[in-house]
Amino acid sequence: MERNRYDGAMLRERLGGLPLHIFREIDSTNSEARRYAWGGGAIPAVFLAEGQTAGRGRMGRGFYSPDGTGIYFSLLFELPQEPNEVTRLTALAAVGVLRAIRRVTGVTPAIKWVNDLYLEGKKIAGILAESFLAEKTRCAVLGVGVNLCTADFPAELKNVAGSLMTHGGLRNELTAALIEEVWALLKSPDAAVMAEYRAHSTVLGKTVTYTQNGIRYEGVAQAIDDGGRLTVRRADGVTVLLSGGEISLRLANQEKKEDL
Q: CB–CB of 141/122 below 8 Å?
């Protein structure tokens, strides 16, 4: 598989002064962002890797991050005085990723609540938002992983993970667009962002199952509010409002698939 490397000069020019740290290989860009913040590094900053040896997803899951065939980055920034919900940050980033992919490739993926993007029924991107303290500064780090042209997935992922393209020729342009779109929405969300999130949702109106505190429930996904929270009317008649947190959600007809 052809490996198109990141063009640091082009990316730094496009980002207009937003500090960019590029790594040939790293454990996890989210983990590096935390280490950087704890070490007193200047915020905001972007961390970009050619490959990750321990890419992370929600609920302790891994994110397969082979060298040169995906885009893996984290945005580190300071949270405002009133803490933002991590669920909302994830939703904003999902729309940013969707807009960037559509702008560069003309393809529009779908969004699976709360943090995954899908194309033709397979996961092509994931988002991980985390908040933490660095000294007295409340920080957030938002990681994005996109399968650009990954072809050789491990056996356990072959039926559930896919790639955006068959080649990596747009890697630098898409990387720049992803960071631009996500950062713009994190700084100043526009009025249309949550309507766009809902419009491209894979779960609204569908029967879903979710697991919370080890207990499995089934119901119909009814609405997504402006904080990114999902309303589900359960089969037992109870209506619940779900934040991302430690909740695993699947479409009811996909329960046999691994929830990435």
A: no
In this structure, what are the phi and psi dihedrals at residue 18, rounded to the nearest 5 degrees?
-70, 115
CA–CA separation, 121 and 235 (whole Å): 26
If 0-12 CB within 10 Å is exposed, 13-18 middle and 19+ buried, where does residue 178 land?
buried
Reading the block at residue 122, the tokens are 């397979």
Question: At 236, is the secondary structure helix, strand, or coil?
Answer: coil
Domains, the chain, in order of start with CATH, read 8-199 (3.30.930.10), 207-254 (2.30.30.100)
DSSP annotation of 253: G
What DSSP element (H or E) covers 30? helix 29-38
Contact predicate 28/130, CB 8 Å: no
For residue 123 the two structure tokens come to 């996961």
pLDDT digits (tens, 9 = 90+) for 235-246: 999 999 998 766
Give the C-alpha separation, 233 to 230, whole Å.
Answer: 10
Summarised one tens digit per residue, pLDDT across range 184-222 is: 999 999 989 999 999 999 999 999 999 888 889 999 999
Indicate yes or no: pTM above 0.90.
Answer: yes
